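Quick log. Single chain, no ligands specified.
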Amino acid sequence: ARTIRVPPPLPSKLMTDVEACIEKLTRCEVLEEEEVRVLCELAKNTLVEEGNVQKVRAPVTICGDIHGQFYDLLELFRVGGGCPRTKYLFLGDFVDRGHYSVETFLLLIALKVRYPDRMTLIRGNHESRQITQVYGFYDECLRKYGSSNVWKFCTDVFDFLSLAAVVDQKVLCVHGGLSPAVPAVDHIRILDRRQEVPHDGAMCDLLWSDPEDIRGWGLSPRGAGYLFGADVVDKFNDANEIDLIARAHQLVMDGYKFHFPLQNIVTIWSAPNYCYRCGNVAAILEVDAALSRRARIFGPPPPNLRQVAHKDVAAEYFL
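-> predicted structure:
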């Protein structure tokens, strides 16, 4: 029988504090800077116990990019069920572009601290100091707190996030895709993840690469990571006894997309009407105890359930 290490429970005082933070964040209220500092320290203490490749048991619901669209995250929980009743695995890109990156990221890490075995968070390419200084999160922290302290607290947490997860040894979850430097899942386990996302190499590729209708490997137009074809996925999955790769990273107008003839890699996108203008629907992928899969589609909540926030225009960035 497999054993999964469970972190020790929080002391009652800290548990009460975290639950209070969850209540405030669910109402989209801004936490005090000291509350953020303590929450981020608790998150690091929780995440440091996890490996680069986190083991997750099914049933679990897998979610793609959120990008600071806080009210759409609440809609996701309405559709998929609240945590801890539903076990979640988020594929990264919690921040940037949306109006509420602060509240989005803090709510997710608060749920991780409170229910560590019911919430798995892995790192996306936007969980990066360099990227967040360009695409909104840094500016949002300055606007809401008047300094960069909260941004520093959160970006320190980024370095503790796992790089991948495996569901029942059969579903590999990464943010972006595969890497020519990672022929086996075990290669991910020995990477040093406690750093800013590098510009190249295995860690970079896992967060930046994309499937494409090519043979072998190709240069990515993103300027980081690779494009990889069906033959690469078939070889990797066969060698690692993986049935499916679940990843995010690319806007999908229908919310999810299975790629290639064997449909052994799927893109999941969980930010409806991305950037409040793209018109796409979102999806989550429910994986049951038998590893059967069902996609749930959802759109933005009605206007009366969301606030409208002013947001400075960020630099344009490919979708």
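The first strand starts at residue 53 and ends at 56.
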